[in-house]
Amino acid sequence: xxxxxxxxxxxxxxxxxxxxxxxxxxxxxxxxxxxxxxxxxxxxxxxxxxxxxxxxxxxxxxxxxxxxxxxxxxxxxxxxxxxxxxxxxxxxxxxxxxxxxxxxxxxxxxxxxxxxxxxxxxxxxxxxxxxxxxxxxxxxxxxxxxxxxxxxxxxxxxxxxxxxxxxxxxxxxxxxxxxxxxxxxxxxxxxxxxxxxxxxxxxxxxxxxxxxxxxxxxxxxxxxxxxxxxxxxxxxxxxxxxxxxxxxxxxxxxxxxxxxxxxxxxxxxxxxxxxxxxxxxxxxxxxxxxxxxxxxxxxxxxxxxxxxxxxxxxxxxxxxxxxxxxxxxxxxxxxxxxxxxxxxxxxxxxxxxxxxxxxxxxxxxxxxxxxxxxxxxxxxxxxxxxxxxxxxxxxxxxxxxxxxxxxxxxxxxxxxxxxxxxxxxxxxxxxxxxxxxxxxxxxxxxxxxxxxxx
Length: 454
Ligand code: UD1
Ligand code: MG
Hints:
There is one protein chain. By secondary structure, the protein is α/β, with parallel strands linked by helices. The protein folds into two domains: about 5-225, Spore Coat Polysaccharide Biosynthesis Protein SpsA, Chain A; about 250-445, UDP N-Acetylglucosamine Acyltransferase, domain 1, CATH 2.160.10.10. It is built from nine helices and 42 strands. A twelve-stranded mixed β-sheet has the order 12-15-18-21-24-27-30-33-36-39-41-42, with helices on one face. The protein is elongated. It starts with a strand and ends in an 11-residue tail after the last strand.
């Protein structure tokens, strides 16, 4: 097997984005553009990709770490010059260079695979991807001679009016034979814009009488290159459509795919139904037969099977199976809801575990707490977990009944099967089976009826 090394160009200014963030770090469906481009490259080759960085190099490096090799281009003098910077890393070490631009987040690994296949059977030194389209979006035009052979790529800025009408466009992915490439790059002339265009390698090959092959693509969405925020929105919409179709074909019902926003790494189980205006983000995993939405935001959360999540916001949480929550419930980091938990409207849970079958129906805040099985949290219950300086824990046993509007002043432990009266302010631990009431809460005496505060 020949060695094929992916090289991605990410050193350009990205001027047209008008952004402080390097262009290739702008997210598309939740992941930086460059991460999508790397994913496609990795589907083709096991060689560690080389990323050419320049403007914003430090930010790009800190986003990607050492999962790639870096070559530095400074200053950015064009795409041909950018690829030259990878030569010291690759000369003599690879048979082919698979070159893509890091601003093409929709390009698929399968398509790059086809490009590589084209080049493996090409007697000439390079193959490329092209697409036919009426709206050229500033792409380079493909020039062919009367025999139909590719002889050059002309950039829009340099094209004659006649050339501008050419419908075959340069997508921006190439497979080069390495032993030819490095010398060819040296022959690229300086353009009128003061850049060395990689696209000129096509003309260099043609002049040497060597064939350049093209794989003609039919899916335009895949070829979207992002140069402006308008393109960014187009890429987002196109990738969203692709992601949504993937889930639907896998057995997930999306009531309205147009208003369902699922980021690239989210997974969903079979027969789950997603209602409109739902945002599923980050490393979210949703099980089978769930009902999610409408108007729901879920990020970095693991949801089991058969859960119902209605108009709620969940971040960094875990739901086991058969959990029922919302409307207007909020889970924050470290919330863990075990099987069959019911959480109704206007509840908030943070850094707490609600044991199996816990019911928390209305207007409660639970933070830094552990709650045992089948405990009932009455309306308006608050864990007073913060004393202005530190957070404190609340431990509640199983089968406990917390009366409405109870204030649980942490640190606090409430034993199994204990009860608190409505409006109790509990400042001391409550033993198993006891009932406490009042402000501050105290146990009910066995022998006499509760005495009212004086
Ligand atoms: C480029 C192609 C064009 C093609 C289009 C497809 C050239 C000269 N033109 O134009 O034919 O149709 O992509 O999207 O190649 N970069 C560097 N260093 C530089 C300049 C750019 O690393 O000095 C990187 C950029 O970060 C970017 C990529 O190369 O990821 C492409 O550069 P960009 O300026 O977006 O080129 P286009 O105008 O889109
Ligand atoms: Mg571009």
